[in-house]
Amino acid sequence: MHFWRRVAAFSASRNRPFAIEGELTRPIHFGAASSGMAAAVATQPGSIRMAMTLSQQLSTGIDLRDSAGRLVRYRYLAPNDDFGALTELLHDAYRPLAAAGMRFVASHQPVDVTRQRALDGDTVLALIENRIVGTVTLSPATKTGGSPFYERSDAANIGQFAVSPAMQQRRIGSMLMDMAEERARDMAFAQVVLNTSEHAGRLIRFYARRGYRFVEYTQWADVNYRSVVMAKAL
Q1: Mean pLDDT rounded to a whole number for the chain
Q2: More exposed terminus of the chain, fewer Cβ within 10 Å: N or C?
Q3: pLDDT per residue over 130-179, tens digit each?
Q4: Residues forming a β-bridge with 17
Q5: Is 59-187 assigned to CATH 1.10.3720.10?
Q6: How far apart are CA 201 and CA 226, in angstroms?
Q7: Going by DSSP bridges, is the β-strand pair 213-218/155-163 parallel, antiparallel, or unpaired?
């Protein structure tokens, strides 16, 4: 299901309004005859225009409510964003995995590494009241490598994915993944690829539910575990 259809389905299931560019719209109801979010929104007087690409929307900000009803702003990383706060978020999100013996780079990386990884691709932030609570980075094929599948020119990489532990299970992570996948689709990539520890069962199951399939194992030099490489056709 493409990004806007996911947003439409989630808004309808919660009977909640959604907002884009800071303007809250009225609740939208979808029936079997609906042709998707764009058609439904077009019927709302004064509603936003859906002709804009996701990238254009993320440049100004997309406001959506999480499953608990809180308004979350999703937007691209800005030059003046706090990379220290982003690093702390990554450390917090990966701390349970580190405690279980999996030394993910994001669990201990310094601020300069966070900055470099974030700037290597399109980084989307999730913010609640201007506080960073989630992030994901989509990197083009030219920035990936290290295993046969990562060498593919038609595969974009999803990495540095994290949600604050206190904000998990609220669909923020799912929305970030939806946006990364939709952005890859807009950029004409045929696949998205990611990797995680073979021992990170919860993450592997999360990705599998989203349609990712096992591709191969690989061993990165900067982690202490064998990685599972997973991919999803777009």
Answers
A1: 84
A2: N
A3: 999 999 999 987 777 778 898 889 999 999 999 999 999 999 999 999 99
A4: none
A5: no
A6: 13
A7: unpaired
